[in-house]
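Q: Convert this sequence to structure tokens.
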Amino acid sequence: MSKSEKVLELLDGYQYKNTTKGIYAYIDTINGREEVPLSSGIFYSVLADDFRTKYDGASISQKTIKECVFNYQGKIIKSQPKVDTKLRIHMDPDGSVIRVDKGDSQYHYFEISSDGWLEKECGDTYFSRNMMQAVLPMPRKNGDLNLIFKYCRIPAGSRNVFLAYLVSCFIDIIHPCLVLQGAAGSSKSTVSTLLKMLIDPCKNNAPCIFPQNEFELKDIYTHMYLAAYDNLDRLNKKQSDMMCSIVTGTQIIKRKLFTDSESCVYNLRQPVILNGISGIVTKEDLLDRSIIINLPSISPEERKSEKALIRDFQSDLPVILGGIFDVLSKTLKIYKEDSIGDAPRLIDFYEYGYYICEAMETGRGKRFCEEYRQMTETRDTNVFALYDNPLYNIIDGFLEENRNHWEGTMSDLWSELWKMDDEFGVGGVPAAPNHLSRILTLMKASLQKEGIYISYSSNTKNNRFVELWRVAPDTQHTS
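A:
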């Protein structure tokens, strides 16, 4: 028997899955059963090791392995139907059943219907896997969804929208982009990490580096269902367009290596979390697809180390996850498509959000609608939320010290505000004068409502000057 024949015989001993994303082989590792792409270095090396073990240390070239695998995949294509597997969340076309991948090596998953939820086996029928994923804990029956607020300090006026977003991440619909804003120390990154642990845990749940192009975007979302991006400044048009595409759905087509016409098609539509100090999203298309929550600062006395917080969260995670599954089951029982009149953009989220909140408490759906519309109106008029905003507090104190009027260059203003910020340890002034200029522009309408006005001018040397003043309530005017 030739070496090629021996390799082909070995290939008969593996199990395979033919999916819309490619052919995968199952391998046994110290971590349990894993699936890897058939044409990958990982599978080639495992096949070479199995060859060496079976044939008394004999070696086999990578070229021979590649040729054998190439020939063998035709057999798989002809014998196995192609299945459309998902990352983490799978929903029946009629919306009656939701499946959530547990992520363990036994391919268990949770099936949620209007009758309740339970753990089941053979999840590889519905889900694709990769080595970045981690395991969801076993949820607890009769859980407590509101326990999430022990760890995520969400303002009272945004809590229904936040809970609707959290639960809807387990439903296969278009999800709004969740934007978390706040000063340093407002736990933006921590909230992002905790949501990642709860919805789509990975080996490392820290936020990602923002993608530079569509192919980096593809790499991120073919390895995780939910991605969070940390410490962002204002998104430019290209970045905003990329986030819009992943929120509403995009198709990325990439030519396979060493082929002339064969292509890989990636259909991506997944949840996004962005966080930063303020004014992250300014482009209208992404604003229309976002919910923006301004997180309050946490006092030094209330802060806990991230290690201790995550340890406590992990102990409560089964209770919170059980609460989510309980609410999902009740939502599926009462949900009625196209039943909410005068719905805004992202109608699926709006409708499911209503029924998610109704499932938690009768009458809460109406409060969700009011809260969501209020958030949308604030967002659409580009009003910058000043509540508990440290930069606003610094500007307020700065004007008081300067008898309600100051003028000079933007660099001078940045330097003066930075001195106050450093003195009081607030952490609200941006890292550079040009960042400050952009944020002040975003804040302008909201500052005027508080009687604070800004105007800009330039001299012949193109130095930018800024004038900042406060008008007494009885003399306020609009400009």
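The longest strand covers residues 22-29.
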